[in-house]
Amino acid sequence: MTSMLTREETWKNLRDLGIVRGEMPSSAWDLRKANLSGADLKGFDLSGANLEETNLSEAFLTETNLGSAYLVDAILDGADLGSANLSGANLEGASLIEAKLDKADLTGAFLNTAYLNNASFRQSNLSKTAITDADISGADMTEADLSSADLSESNLFSAKFHRANLSKANLHKTNSEETDFSHSNLSEADISDAYFTKANLSGADLTNARLNSSEFIGVNLSGANLNGAQIPGTDFCNADFSGANLSNTDFSVADTEGAVF
Asked: Taking a C-beta distance cutoff of 8 angstroms, is the pair 167, 186 a contact?
């Protein structure tokens, strides 16, 4: 386990690396546009720091405290943020392509319009996180907590949400084509006007979820729980409902041509 540094120790290490100068300021640290590519910042306390447009690509940030940090438009491609604290951090427009954030805490963070392509968030906490209009294609969210998160209008193409908690999450107008939601919790989620063609929702919990006017063409819903799901105007053509719980769901208002029940 990485040893967590104090603010004073963090400032001294940053000064030794030539990143900052002088005594530690009492106000928020200004590290805007710094080049920290590949830097070893494991366990540093960078909470509340201004890291706007900072280059942290390939940096080592495991167990680093970035709580409430300002990381707008920062570059974190390939960075290792495993078990890092990013709660309340602002990462809008940031690039985290192929970054590792397994078991990281992103509770209440802002990731709107961020680039999360092929990033790993396995077992991370993203509850109440804002990730709207972001590119999440190919990302691995296995067993992540995204309860009450807002992913509306994001691109989730071919991402993995296996056993993820998406209860009460907002997936309105998302592109979830070929995305893996197997055994995930989507109860009471808003999945309206979304594109889920060929997605895998086998064993998923969709209790009381809102699927209004969405495309679920060729979706695997075998063993899923759709008890009380709202589906007016939803296209389920060629979907697989084998073994699914369909109680309290009105299929007369949906298109089920070619579906397997």
From this structure: yes
For 12, the enclosing helix (H) or strand (E) is: helix 7-16
Q: Which residues contact 172 (CB under 8 A, 6 or more apart)?
A: 152, 153, 190, 191, 192, 193, 194
Tell whether the model's pLDDT for residue 1 goes beyond 70: no
Buried residues in 234-247 as b, exposed as e (16+ CB within 10 A): bbbbbbbbeebbbe
Compute the distance between CA of residue 58 and CA of residue 39 in angstroms, rounded to an integer: 8
pLDDT in tens, 125-168: 999 999 999 999 999 999 999 999 999 999 999 999 999 999 99
DSSP readout, 177-212? TT-B-TT-B-TT-B-TT-B-TT-B-TT-B-TT-B-T
In the chain, the N- to C-terminal Cα span, in Å, equals: 50
